Amino acid sequence: MENKFKAVVLLSGGIDSATTLAIAQNMGFDIGALSFRYGQRHVVELEAAARIARSRNVAGHLIIDIDLRRIGGSALTADIAVPKNRAVEKMGKEIPLTYVPARNTIFLSYALAWAEVIGAADIFIGVNALDYSGYPDCRPEYIASYEKMANLATKAGVEGGRKFKIHAPLIQMSKSQIVRKGIELGVDYGLTHSCYDPLVSGEACGECDSCLLRLKGFSDAGVQDPVRYKKVEP
């Protein structure tokens, strides 16, 4: 990765991170994408992340192993049922069981370390504080605080004269706005995966918070969601 416009993008494989990657590329950055196998029940998302990285011709894609099942505390990393069929209007009002303790802090720390090593000053994360599930590490004040910390806690920030910037381009966008932006930038949403509790056959459940928010976003945007959902018996 020799381009001076380097950036690290956290790439989960969902619509938010895929759109964020496209935005970073549109800004002229040469991308290093970073994904994690952290013990999540929806590990199939990593296949989506790899598909997206290939389709967008990213300069490099790292998948790092972290076993957050050893810590647990989340429906995504422990034997806790994933909440289903919650009303969309109630999401964001309380922190749900799918919250993974300190996940974005952990992910951003790896991204910061990689950025420091490859000479990048820009880190992109696809957090959203409008149509979201209420996670505390998806809020503007969290991103601002992390950016301040990044510039205090790194050699590059203290001695190297490099100012780290944490970009959260979707943070004030609705899901429908995100979908429209991605389509504008040529994102193939058929490559993405959002479901927290997919079927063994690969179909999305259509009932978890992530599926419901995704479906609402596509519906509000007037666009057909290209992924497969489980068939509901009549």
Description of the molecule:
34% of the residues lie in helices and 11% in strands. With 234 residues, the chain is of the alpha/beta class. The chain has one domain (6-221): Rossmann fold, CATH 3.40.50. Strands 3-2-1-4-5 form a five-stranded parallel β-sheet, sandwiched between helices. α2 (45-55) links the parallel β2 (30-37) and β3 (60-65). α1 (15-26) crosses α6 (175-184) and α6 (175-184) packs across α7. The longest helix is centred in the middle third of the chain and has 16 residues, at 103-118. The N and C termini lie far apart (53 Å).
> How many structural domains can be distinguished in the coordinates?
1
Tell me the helix content: 25-40%
Proportion of residues in extended strands: 5-15%
Largest sheet: 5 strands, parallel
CATH architecture title: 3-Layer(aba) Sandwich
Question: What characteristics describe this protein?
Answer:
alpha/beta; 234 residues; 7 helices; 34% helix; Rossmann fold
Short description:
The chain is α/β, with parallel strands linked by helices and 234 residues long.
List the helices and strands and how they pair.
Layout: E1 6-10, H1 15-26, E2 30-37, H2 45-55, E3 60-65, H3 103-118, E4 122-124, H4 140-152, H5 155-158, E5 165-167, H6 175-184, H7 209-221
Parallel strand pairs: 1-2, 1-4, 2-3, 4-5
Helix pairs in contact: 1-6, 6-7
